[in-house]
Amino acid sequence: xxxxxxxxxxxxxxxxxxxxxxxxxxxxxxxxxxxxxxxxxxxxxxxxxxxxxxxxxxxxxxxxxxxxxxxxxxxxxxxxxxxxxxxxxxxxxxxxxxxxxxxxxxxxxxxxxxxxxxxxxxxxxxxxxxxxxxxxxxxxxxxxxxxxxxxxxxxxxxxxxxxxxxxxxxxxxx
Length: 174
Ligand code: IMP
Ligand code: MG
Description:
Blueprint lengths: L2 E7 L1 H18 L5 E7 L3 H9 L5 E10 L10 E5 L9 E9 L3 H11 L5 E9 L12 E5 L5 E2 L15 E6 L1
Parallel strand pairs: 2-3, 2-5, 5-6, 6-7
Antiparallel strand pairs: 1-9, 3-4, 8-9
Helix pairs in contact: 1-2
Bound molecules: inosinic acid and magnesium ion.
Magnesium ion binds next to strand 5.
């Protein structure tokens, strides 16, 4: 069984949007430092490009999480595989995600990280599939709202494949 990938958002559109988000964040955090929490692995490409576009000081940290149980269906119970390197006390945290689908992963993460007493906490996602949301979660910075399609590229995978595509594509199973 093979897959076909159709381009949904090309490289230039994605890069332009990241530039815009970087500008907005730089403006909103003027005079402050940003503690960027990148959720591995999917958000890594986006987080690195975004960090390059932010003009205030950026600390980059990584966290790896996995949902328990069936991978295809987000359960809302999240296990921390790799935790952050430093405490968040007094930090202006921005959680950077590749995509928000049901919202379960992020809503768990926000609750967990809030308990570490950051000065502030914001959410930034490259993609948002609002149709699939089951939790009430407010996103501060969104790249693109997309329809309910399975997408890959720019860090997003299908069975660990296609993360390295420089664009966002829709997966069609043949
Ligand atoms: P949520 O907890 O349902 O919001 O799950 C979000 C996570 O599911 C993302 O961080 C991705 O790892 C994965 N995911 C959701 N939709 C897609 C998709 O279209 N392509 C690739 N991964 C996806
Ligand atoms: Mg992810």
